[in-house]
Amino acid sequence: MTKTVLLTIGRLPKALDFARSFYHADWRVLVGEPFKSHLTGASKCVAQSFVLPAPRAGKAAYLEALGALVDAQKVDLVLPLSEETMHVAHLQTQAQIYAPSPNTLLELHNKASFIALAQRLGLAVPETALIGTPKATQIAAQHDYVIKPIYSCSGRGMSFHKQSSAIRAGTTSDPNEAAIVQQQLSGRQVSTFGIAHQGKMLANVVYEGLIMSGSVAVAFTRIALAEVDSWVEQFVARTGHSGFISFDFVDEHGIARAIECNPRVTSGVHFWKRRAWRKQFCNPIRPNWPTNQPTA
């Protein structure tokens, strides 16, 4: 019997990769997202697209509509791919969602709590503290530093400051949003994207930006850095993580330090070969198929 997967975003190129992979693994592919027209919807691999309320406009309305769609279309697997993962994960009691628990997602996505977790695990990270704490003042006095909102993505609200410059309130785009002060590192900036199951890395790719648009890379190349792979493997093993897992690193003279975590799909997925991707992920009969079952 053909299984159905629902992608909860369609406008990004990574969604098209997943649609093609599932289609060629004989799944029925649906897309549910706020835009009526989107990149993935134009593909023959997508059976149908559905318009959902934007989660930022109202989480309750979004989850209600998403849940109704899952029931109506008899969806076997809901696959969030981007920032909407933070909302979709709350449906885990109603549907099979490929995502960690909401609490795990928040801990990893929060730039302050992620660094604190990595420190407890004994992994290398830059000095980091919440704005308004004595530790933040100390970091600013001793290092060039970066200010980032704790839940920002794509460089939103990020600013760079020289050592000993005063930490100004309201530096981010939203003065009411919590933010961190982080030691600015010098070195090679790289990213990772991988998939893990019960503390074991099933696949991981390390890549770096070739062409930048501000702080966001728009063209990439795959690279090999053993110290980065080792850091990721240790983090996943010590946390027992299952699901997508991505990091940003600064690598300096063979020492890799993670600066933030993205518990979702990133552009690194484009480096995966479709055949290998299908073998690793799209076949639910495999005993190591990395998915979370409903909790109730």
In a nutshell, what does this entry contain?
The chain is an alpha+beta fold. The protein contains 8 helices and 13 strands. The protein has helices at 13-24, 59-72, 85-88, 102-109, 111-120, 134-142, 226-239, 274-282, and strands spanning 4-7, 28-33, 48-51, 77-79, 128-130, 145-149, 159-161, 179-183, 188-197, 200-213, 216-223, 243-252, 255-262.
Question: Could you explain the architecture of this structure?
Answer:
This protein is of the alpha+beta class. It folds into three domains: 4-99, Rossmann fold, CATH 3.40.50.20; 105-123 and 186-265, ATP-grasp fold, B domain (D-amino Acid Aminotransferase, Chain A, domain 1), CATH 3.30.470.20; 128-183. Helix content is 27%, strand content 28%. It has eight helices and 13 strands. A five-stranded antiparallel β-sheet has the order 11-10-9-12-13. A four-stranded parallel β-sheet has the order 3-2-1-4, with helices on both faces. Strands 5-8-6-7 form a four-stranded antiparallel β-sheet. The two termini are 25 Å apart. The model is unreliable at 284-296 (pLDDT under 50).
